[in-house]
Amino acid sequence: MSAIAKGVRKAKSRFGGRLEPFFRLNLVLYEGRSDMLTVTSVETIEAYPRVREHGAALDGAARACEAVSRIFDDGDPHEGVYHLLANQLALIDRDVTRAGRANSLAFRLKLLLAAGFAPHLAGCASCGDREHLVGFSGAAGGVVCGSCEANAFPLDEDAHAFMVAALGRPLAETPDAPPLALAQAERAIIDTLEHHAHLRLRPVSTR
């Protein structure tokens, strides 16, 4: 939702410095005749101050917020996604390493799950075979076996294992994985979003 805070740049603004990126707030919004809502009061729930002290944390928080706004742009409430984003910001605030590639990819995988686009990982998305899973197809919606990999890209066992664990564990328990596995997992996320949501997100940090 979009809203305007009138007079926020004035020295005596009643909003103070609370209307800053990555703050979690309680807002009272006034709906007038225009499409733009007006902020009438602000209460800080969580400021996440350490997020703004590190470039990597700022970047990770920005990409997390952008992913949510791009995937869930319908204006409807998504309580589970809200709490997922709040959890991600809290993790980054406590530990800047949580802004790294593995955690960011796990966050995006959970967004796919919340949006109904979670990739099929238990067996071949084309034929159902649970053996010889060697590729990933965004069009098919998940991992594919050697017999169905015509339009797929290679997905190593490490990448498959990372995606399964990332979806099954809390964000705070995101596993690490080799760089190649993380790159393949990111490509799987990109292909899934392009085929099923028709959008492309900025790549996550390579840190």
Walkthrough of the structure:
There is one protein chain. With 207 residues, the protein is α+β, with helices and mostly antiparallel strands. It has two domains: 1-47, no CATH class; 50-196, de novo design (two linked rop proteins). It is 38% helix and 14% strand. It contains five helices and six strands. It has helices at residues 55-71, 79-94, 101-115, 157-168, 179-196, and strands at 3-4, 24-30, 37-46, 133-137, 142-145, 153-154. Strands 1-3-2 form a three-stranded mixed β-sheet, with no helix packed on it. Helix 4 (157-168) crosses helix 5 (179-196). The longest helix has 18 residues, at 179-196. 31% of the residues are buried. The model has no long low-confidence stretch (mean pLDDT 92).
Q: How much of the polypeptide forms β-strand, as a percent range?
A: 5-15%
| Poorly predicted spans | none
- What is Rg? 20 Å
Tally of alpha and pi helices? 5
The appropriate CATH architecture of the largest domain is Up-down Bundle
Largest sheet: 3 strands, mixed
Mean pLDDT: 92
Helical proportion, percent range: 25-40%
Determine the structural class based on helices, strands and strand pairing: alpha+beta
CATH class of the largest domain: Mainly Alpha
| Strand order in space, largest sheet | 1-3-2
Q: How many runs of DSSP E, i.e. beta strands?
A: 6
The count of domains is 2
The global form is elongated
Distance between the termini: 31 Å
CATH homologous superfamily grouping of the largest domain: Recombination protein O, C-terminal domain
Give helix and strand order, one letter per element, not per position: EEEHHHEEEHH
CATH topology of the largest domain: de novo design (two linked rop proteins)
